[in-house]
Amino acid sequence: DEIGQLAFKGMKRLNRIQSIVFETAYNTNENMLICAPTGAGKTNIAMLTVLHEIRQHVQQGVIKKDEFKIIYVAPMKALAAEMTNYFSKRLEPLGIMVKELTGDMQLSKSEILRTQMLVTTPEKWDVVTRKSVGDVALSQLVKLLILDEVHLLHEDRGPVLESLVARTLRQVESTQSMIRILGLSATLPNYLDVATFLHVNPYIGLFYFDGRFRPVPLGQTFIGIKTTNKVQQLINMDEVCYE
User: Matching Pfam families, A to Z (predicted)?
Assistant: First the structure.
């Protein structure tokens, strides 16, 4: 359709992974978890869900920009800045405003209200959603929550991500509103657990792609080091690695 063509201008086709998830991402409201190797094109899958949400708010050919907010949570400020630039360029033809909201990039309340898509970090969005006064209207406008690098759940900032998801799910249940959640992750072993945590239907919204889907194939070779002496083991490993 026209919205998709404007946002993906210059792209002739989707890659293999994007084509597989297209129907669910672009034509349903299902929560999704995408596990795929780095460089597999997960950002464009996020774009498909963003465009689906925008299409829900088109009336008589006009996008009702004050009806929704899209939140993209990136683990690092550098990635947040990169994603802000990417989505800004892609969504500019649609008149959608994308802004970065991190510790380094503060926005006034009026700027946030004028913005349709916010790219933020877990800690910053955690602070925003914890405020009970003033930002209630903002959180109620959120229709799509994109969590990048979900596999970081087991690291230091995991509890922050958990609280974000829990707060979002509680809001869905208490207000009976619809907030779609998209999780993007590198390949991880317990993807079923993460899917359950994000309330993803494993038969519809869970997509797992292993190393065979890497854009550049990765070869793996296992070499056994038989020495029992720890120091000699390290020396032997260094020799093998530098040969």
Answer: DEAD
